[in-house]
Design goal:
This protein has 328 residues and is of the alpha/beta class. The chain is built from 10 helices and 15 strands.
Length: 328
């Protein structure tokens, strides 16, 4: 194990947040029963909020950011892991209350770790990251709610983003007709390459919501929230379901009970941070089976750790397409 290692550290003095490149020792790490040599992380929308301080995500300072990590076990006091095991970790308070993935070493609870499926390299696991893992959780929720390809189309909002890109690819491979909603019309060929059958502009769903609209889709995966989610709900067909996992457009939800009591639809909340381990393993196993790695590569760009602060600003500005892998 390295006696000193590189990391990014966020400090807060009064109301001012600073982000620094630092060198730490293993003694500086937080408590846990497994130490991981981190090879890769990623940049999600939530990472952007953490690094810029635009939302009070971090609840303990100083903090190493990065809500995802993948790497190799160095030391373990957990019976489920031994040195040399390849592992992946999404959420569980990383970069909120526990040191995260923008570090060459991480000490975490073994109960948080998922064995890396043999089908993926650590870099591919972080190309998936929390965004792709969340997309898979959304697909599982729609399946559990009875939304099958035969029931009708599925709309994906924020389709050119991380969650959206993986969701489009997964749904298309599973046989669904995918309607992709995006504010970046120049990404039409990219989204159709991932498997989208139809592209609709973000503005079509961003207006003042109706209580009920024309039935247009049997299901939805929404990472936007606010008026967009309200309009998605209003146009979901009888017995359909919406998996809601994001808030890029806002925390509010200006809708009514009409679609729920007149059409019997379901709104499914998707939390990736505290998801129980059996469901995590199910999601990763399904990703190994159902995600086209060629399409994953097409949506992925790799950056060094030194570029994550710039990437944080760009992801919040909606300038990042697909997924970013960070080489630690």
């Amino acid at each position: 194990m390295k006696s000193r290692f590189k990391a990014i550290l966020i400090r807060k003095d009064s109301d001012k947040q600073t982000v620094e490149d630092v060198e730490l020792t293993p003694a500086d790490l937080m408590q846990g029963d497994v130490t991981v040599a981190v090879s890769h992380s990623t940049v999600n929308y939530k990472d952007g909020l953490v690094l810029t301080g635009r939302s009070p995500v971090v609840r303990k300072f100083p903090m190493i950011p990065g809500i995802d990590l993948a790497g190799t076990v160095e030391e373990s006091a957990n019976p489920n892991f031994t040195p040399g095991d390849k592992v992946v970790l999404n959420g569980f308070g990383l970069s909120e209350t526990h040191y995260g993935g923008y570090s060459e070493l991480a000490r975490v609870k073994g109960d948080w770790l998922v064995p890396l499926p043999k089908e993926f390299t650590p870099a591919q696991a972080m190309a998936i990251g929390t965004a792709g893992y969340t997309a898979m959780l959304c697909v599982l929720a729609l399946e559990d709610a009875g939304v099958t390809p035969a029931k009708g189309a599925v709309v994906v909002t924020g389709a050119a983003g991380g969650v959206g890109s993986v969701a489009v690819s997964l749904l298309a491979k599973l046989g669904y007709k995918v309607i992709a909603s995006t504010g970046r019309t120049e990404e039409e060929s990219y989204l159709k390459g991932l498997g989208a059958s139809e592209i609709i502009p973000r503005t079509e769903l961003a207006g003042e919501p109706r209580m009920l609209g024309k039935e247009r889709w049997a299901g939805a995966i929404d990472s936007v929230g606010s008026k967009t989610l309200a309009n998605v709900i209003a146009s979901t067909s009888y017995g359909g379901a919406i998996a809601a996992c994001g808030l890029a457009g806002g925390l509010d939800l200006p809708t009514s009970v009409a679609p729920f009591i007149l059409r019997g639809i379901s709104l499914l909340g998707i939390d990736s941070v505290q998801m129980p381990k059996p469901r995590r393993i199910q999601a990763w196993n399904r990703l190994a089976k159902d995600l086209d790695v060629a399409k994953l590569a097409a949506m992925t760009h790799t950056i060094p750790l030194s570029d994550v602060r710039k990437a944080a600003e760009e992801i919040l500005a909606g300038k990042i397409r697909g997924r970013l892998v960070v080489e630690i």
